[in-house]
Amino acid sequence: MSETTTAPDQRTVSGVAIRLEGVTKRYPGQQKPAVDSVDLEIAAGETVMFVGPSGCGKTTLLKMLNRLIEPSGGKIFLGDEDVTGQDPDRLRRRIGYVIQAGGLFPHMTVGTNIGLVPGMLGWDKERIAERTDELLDLVGLDPEVYRARYPKELSGGQQQRVGVARALAADPPVLLMDEPFGAVDPITRQRLQDELLRIQEELGKTIVFVTHDFDEAVKLGDKIVVFDVGARVVQYDTPEAILAEPAEEYVADFVGAGATLKQLTLTRVADTELHTPVTAQAGEDSAAVVARATAAGEQYVVVTDGRGRPISWPSVAELTRTTTVPATRDDRLPVVGLRSTLNDALDTMLAASQGGVVVTGRRDSVAGVLVVEQVMAAIQATRGETRG
Amino acid sequence: MWQYLLDRRDLIAFQAYQHVSLVVQCVVLATVLAVGLAVLAYRSPRITSLANSVSAIGLTIPSFALLGLLLAPFGFGITPAVVAVVFYAALPVLRNAVVGLAGVDQSLVESARGIGMSRLATLWRVELPLAWPVILAGVRVSTQMVMGIAAVAAYVLGPGLGSLIFSGLSRLGGANALNATLVGTIAIVLLALVLDVVLVLVGRLTTSKGIRV
Predict the structure, then answer these.
(1) What parts of the sequence cross the membrane (chain B) (predicted)?
(2) Is the Cβ pair A68, B208 closer than 8 Å?
């Protein structure tokens, strides 16, 4: 159907378009319908965020897409196919579904959880095992370590990652996410968001994402739908357009438009000029690395593991005291993704009490370093823009 | 008493075997029936409260009275014993199964439905395994309780250690009467303990590591 027009780069698209025609949900005994005749078109490969006050019907609308809630009227199309009358169980195996805390089954291992949908689709064991490992790798969990674990042995963020992996297991074209990151702490949430952006860049699914956090919507969405009561679509546009020109007073209030720092959530880390750091692999000879850093005039060195992922960020002075570059992982290492917002980067720096963050790109490899001065410069620039 | 035990060890062993066999078979049957009923009942709050009252009231019926009443339709023998034991065994299991199934996190049920599991698959692969520890706790209570009730069932000439107790009681003061009663009672208590240990083991083997406490 329509191609992704918002992305400047050529993006892979494996999703299909979704079209809603007059979708309505009426509950018996209620005067007003919970969802009142919604028409909506979502382009293939786009991430569309549903935002609105609680009780506005956004979750109901989402659940009608995979028919967890049966619509009282209207039609739903996936691609050109009318799925309104299709067997719901079979439909749902083609639509990934992620809920808060992942909705993992506590009595099954991580591997079993991920393999459920492929199993229902009749894949053979070997293929399921292969796919499970592939997906764990995709969401940044080592298959050897996590495959046989139970959900209770994982942190909230890890559970959520497994939830995403499970939803992607059978490679569905559409992913529905119902406030998936609502129950984790802010730093973990930001990492999960970065990861989703990275995964989405690789896969290009059509994602419908319900959230009550407008910053999250701005960060993750190609488009945002702002709903009012009865799932009335008040505005459906790109985050930039909604922030710049809210369609109604209601939207302006809801998004808190006008706040200049809001623009920080629109600027991506990738949009700024990143500093290229001196990197070293764990286990390298320290003296050589120190020499390299001194030659480049650097104070700090980013240490990576065997797969190019950052693990620590020691100073040159610290390294001179060692013989080989240590492989210890610094849990407080400030890291953001290329698609993170400057807001996230600043948050991360503050949380780690550091003047900079390591920026990672594909498969979590080092893409550069962002320092606080650059964030300040960006703030100055946007303030200048909005004033002038 | 020791001499009494040695003299009749074959008979006692046989009756102990019969007793355990009756209890185990009845508990298995009762569990299947009770879980089946619970599956039908737990979605409706009205039927759930009905099931709970039935199991509460049912347990207040004196077993001796029920056995007596069952004599009319079934006559003497093994049938009324089995019916009575299954009836009592089913009640705690029914109650726990309803509570266990109703206690399964609804977001997990929705998650199961959301990834395309059918109603039946959700019950079989998600709800029952998650409710299993609670159901099994009911089975343990049942087993302990019907060990005693099965003894009373000997009154209607059912099998088991109860016949030892009753024959002892009926000729109290006679030779070996006290011995018979004591041996029967102690054997039942010991067997109940053994069965409980077995059930704990079964619980460990059949409960997923992921939900074990």
Answers:
(1) 20-42, 54-76, 82-109, 177-202
(2) no
The CATH fold of domain A270-383: CBS-domain (3.10.580)
Q: Answer yes or no: are the C-beta atoms of B19 and B162 closer than 8 Å.
A: yes
Percent of chain B topping pLDDT 90: 48
Question: What is the mean predicted confidence (pLDDT) over A108-130?
Answer: 95
CA distances from A248 to A41, A43, A55, A245, A263 (A): 21, 24, 19, 9, 19
Burial degree of A326 (CB within 10 A; 0-12, 13-18, 19+): middle
**Distance, in angstroms, between A313 CA and closest chain B CA?**
37
| Superfamily for domain range B2-206 | MetI-like (1.10.3720.10)
Highest mean pLDDT among A256-260, A292-296, B129-133: B129-133
Contact B114 A116 (CB under 8 A): no
CB contact (8 A) between residue A152 and residue B210? yes
The pTM of this model reads: 0.80
Query: How many CB atoms are closer than 10 A to CB A79?
Result: 16
In this complex, how many residue pairs, one in chain A and one in chain B, have their CB atoms less than 8 Å apart?
66
| Residues belonging to chain A with any Cβ–Cβ distance to chain B shorter than 8 Å | 66, 68, 89-93, 96-97, 99-101, 103-109, 116-117, 120, 150-152, 166-167, 176
**B126: contact with A, CB 8 A cutoff:** yes
Q: How many CA atoms lie within 13 A of A249 on its CB side?
A: 0
Tell me the domain boundaries of chain B.
Answer: 2-206
Whether residue A105 and residue B117 make contact (CB cut-off 8 A), yes or no, is no
pLDDT interval class at B126 (50, 70, 90): very high
The pLDDT of residue A376 is 83
Class of domain A18-257: alpha beta
Which of left, alpha, beta for B36 (phi over 0: left; psi -120 to 50: alpha)?
alpha
Domain borders along chain A are 18-257, 270-383
